[in-house]
């Protein structure tokens, strides 16, 4: 059983998947920062300073007016955090778009490589045929 496990781990697909998961986790942190630190302030600027991350509706409990989402949760109130959901949707759309662009680029590279492989090798320029050579020799001898 240990040998089978080693064979499973050593397969290229498992290693590729592990690398993909690690890169994906790092990429998620980058996208989260992009959304929180760059996109949110721009959206807030156009919407009059609205910060989506602190948008919520109180379902039950007491919350001070203008309290942040974190303060409302710490106070024990049940909140409907629709702002966090909007941010999750924005994160997803950005990640999906970047993944789409990466897959599109990889597919173009693969297609270009396949076209190079499929392209017929250029044939050497065809020289004169045997008949052409004999005709030339005959004509040269006739001139002498």
Topology record:
Layout: H1 2-10, H2 12-46, E1 57-60, H3 69-74, E2 78-80, H4 82-118, H5 130-143
Antiparallel strand pairs: 1-2
Helix pairs in contact: 2-4
Structure write-up:
By secondary structure, the chain is mainly α. It has one domain: Orthogonal Bundle (Non-ribosomal Peptide Synthetase Peptidyl Carrier Protein, Chain A), CATH 1.10.1200. The chain has helices spanning 2-10, 12-46, 69-74, 82-118, 130-143, and strands spanning 57-60, 78-80. It has a two-stranded antiparallel sheet with strand order 1-2. The longest helix is centred in the last third of the chain and has 37 residues, at 82-118. 3% of the residues are buried. The model has no long low-confidence stretch (mean pLDDT 80).
List key phrases describing it.
2 strands; mainly alpha; elongated; 5 helices; 144 residues; Non-ribosomal Peptide Synthetase Peptidyl Carrier Protein, Chain A; two-stranded antiparallel ribbon
What fraction of residues sit in β-strands? under 5%
Q: Can you tell me the CATH architecture?
A: Orthogonal Bundle
Multimerization status: single chain
Structural class, by secondary structure, is mainly alpha
DSSP strand count:
2
Distance N terminus to C terminus?
89 Å
Strand order of the largest sheet: 1-2
Main beta sheet, described? 2 strands, antiparallel
């Amino acid at each position: 059983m240990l040998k089978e496990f080693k064979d499973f781990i050593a397969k290229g697909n498992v290693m590729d998947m592990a690398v993909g998961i690690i890169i994906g986790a790092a990429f998620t942190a980058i996208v989260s920062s992009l959304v929180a630190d760059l996109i949110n302030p721009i959206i807030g600027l156009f919407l009059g300073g609205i910060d989506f991350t602190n948008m919520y509706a109180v379902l039950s409990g007491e919350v001070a007016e203008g309290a942040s989402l974190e303060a409302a949760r710490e106070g024990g109130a049940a909140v409907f955090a629709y702002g966090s959901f909007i941010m999750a949707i924005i994160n997803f759309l950005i990640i999906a778009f970047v993944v789409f662009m990466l897959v599109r680029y990889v597919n173009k590279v693969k297609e270009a490589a396949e076209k190079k492989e499929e392209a017929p090798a250029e044939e050497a320029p065809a020289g004169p045929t045997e008949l052409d050579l004999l005709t030339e020799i005959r004509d040269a001898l006739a001139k002498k």
